[in-house]
Structures are given as C-alpha cells and as structure tokens.
Amino acid sequence: MGAVRIVIVGGSFGGLTTAYELRRHLSPERAEITLVAKDGQFRFVPSFPWVAMGRRRLEQISFPLAGPLANKHVGFAQETVTGIDTASKVVSTDAGDHPYDFLVVATGHRSANEAVPGLGPFDGPGHSPMSAKETTELAGAIQALLADPGPVVVGAAPGASCIGPVYELAFELDHLLRRRGLRHQVPIRLLTPEPFLGHMGMGGAGTIRQLLEGALEERDIAYRTSAAITRITGESVETADAAPTSSVCSIVIPPLAGVDAVASSPGLANPKGFVPVDDHYRHQAADGVYAVGVAVALPPVDATAVPVNFPKTGHMTEQMAKIAAADLAARLEGHEAPTDELSARCILGMGDRAAYLAVDPVRPPRNRIPSVSDGRQWLIAKMAFERAYLAFARRGKLVPTALGW
Question: CATH code for 4-111+257-341?
C-alpha cells in the first residue's frame, strides 16, 4: 500500500500540533503530509495582549513555518484555501489543488466584526486583538491613548467565545497606565456579555468569579455583566440596556464565525461556518475529514441572557489535535483510538502578576474542584512558557508539560 495523502489546513496551534503528532505516529513512507496556510508565520496568539501593550514585538512571538515542518518531513504550501470538495476529496487554493485521503481542518476563525457596527479596526473606530494585523493596529491606538488620555471601554460582543483576553487587556492596560502615571486620566470600564464575571463560556470555575471581582474593584475598573454591545462610535460604546459609555479607545472582542472557504464548502460546516464532529474530532458525515480548534462546532454550556459561546483555548486546541491525530493513525491500522473530555489550563496576565485556572473537564459538572490562584509566580510561569513553547516549536517539538496552559 502506498503512502496516504493527508492535508492539514491551517498553521496555528491546531495545524502545527496535528502535523507534529501525525508524523510522530506515521513515518514519511506511510503518510505524505502537507500543511496549507495563508500565513507563512506561526504566531503565539496568547501573547497578543502583550504585543498590544508594547511588552512584546510581533517578531518576538513568531517564527517561519517552512523550516520546522521540513525537518519533520511535512510539506508546506503558503496558499489561500478557496474551497473544499469533500465528495472529490480535494482542497482548492489560489495556487492549485491538493487531493487528499484524509483532511484536517484547523483553519481557526473569522472575526465576525460586522456583528457590531463600528467594530473596526480598519473600517470603524473600534479595536480588536484577534489577528496579528489587528493587534499591531491596537498597539498604535494604545500609544495614541498614552499621548492623549481619555476614557476606555474593554469588552466582548454578544456571542463571543474568547472572553479571557477581555480581562487580560483591562488588567494590562491598567498596569501600563499606572507605570506611566496616567491612570488617573483614563477611566476603564469593562463590558461583558457574561451573566457573571468569570463565566467565560464554561459556566464559571471555582473561585475565579471572586478573584476577578476583587481584582477589578481594587484597580478601580468599573464593570457590567450581561451587557449587549450594539454599536461603537468614536466617542462611546452603546449597549442594548443602558446609556452609551464614553470611550475614546474601545477594545471589543467580536463573535467568531467559520472562515469563508470552510463555511462555503457544501456539506462541510454548520450555518455559522463551524465543522460538526464526533468525540474523536471526525466529521459527522464527510469521509476522511477531521477538524480541530476554533473551527470545531461546540455548543454553549448553558443559556444566558446575552449569548456567550463555548471557549476554545490554545491548550484545548492541542488536546483536540492530539486526539484527532491518534485516531487518524489508528484507523489506518483498522481500529479506533481512545478519546477524552477537554480540560483547560490557562494563565491570565494581570500586569504585575497573573492568575492560574485549571478546569477538568471544561464542561460542567466536573470531576475535580477547579484550581484558582494568582500571584507573581504565575506571571513568571506565563513568560517562561511562552519562551519554552516557541523554542520547542521551532525545533519541531511540543512542550512536555503537565501544567498545561
């Protein structure tokens, strides 16, 4: 039997982890693996808030994909996917076609900024850190704020699933302004669709609610829950249930949708553009198709007054990628690999310290009481993990840690 053809679409955590894991399971003689991504750089997305605040440069948290993939005998095509034909098993790009026997969709998300009028940053006054380009633009807006201080709103739109960065950005901005002696000139208000602080799309976890309430209150950061942001202007942020909140710099996390190529491919995605999968991250209908990371369709944990969607962190994406890769390799041998519930381990930057949260599983009820703590030691751990992850990934390896992230 000849080598099977495996195509991976996406070059972030899901795609890179899947490529490394598949090659660990399958030799080059057994599997021809090609990773297709429109960006030739891997970006360590968890550090985007630090880039926005000037604590990191984008090049410090990036590296080219081609070299590490070549070292693992994985082909790399820097191309933009235009469509996926699951019947013919072909991935089409702006440069040609890639036939496959197995496909792993790890495309991440499209930011649905259009859900909130004025949520730019390139066609409106709002700012968002959901891509490298947007984060660079936000970094410029933060510098402008330092030169001409005024009120700030940090928040998330209805239907958002990436809530953690809202807290990180508020805390990091507070810390930056205090260091510059400008905090007294910049009221910060946090607007979240969550029914309570720390819900984060997973129904809350342990004492994270109390930790966040105390941290915001001691920093004089006003907050409002169940806030439905409806519009952003150059002077304010409007919500469905209250008067406009003054803001000269509005940072809002948008809801997410599937990328256009996935959303428009017949039989591949649900109406929101996400891929329905089983507990091995195999497509529920399309033969030979897997999906991992933000591209996966996962239902919310509960119904809330303002919609909050299920979170998908980098750590969770890696778990999905490992489960999918193991199952794909097992099926080539005629059996099925084991699977497991997703857990979450994350460190939330807070400026001069950080908070650690461990949840197992993510979706309640849970086997273990969640671990929640904060302190400078977690900030040091977050910085160390960033460096370690990038160093290992550049060499075609994943960080061997039980801590998670």
Answer: 3.50.50.100
Is 346 designated active site? yes
The owner of tokens 């084991």 is 338
Tell me what pLDDT residue 403 has.
Answer: 47
Whether the predicted pLDDT of 31 surpasses 50: yes
In the residue annotation, 249 being an active-site residue is answered as: no
Catalytic hit among 346, 348, 358, 390? 346
Residue 401 has pLDDT above 80, yes or no: no
Cite the residue boundaries of each domain of the chain with CATH code 3.50.50.60.
113-255
pLDDT digits (tens, 9 = 90+) for 76-95: 999 999 999 999 999 999 99
Q: Which of 142, 162, 350, 372 is catalytic?
A: 162
pLDDT tens, position by position, 274-297: 999 999 999 999 999 999 999 999
| Domain 113-255 bears CATH identifier 3.50.50.60 | yes
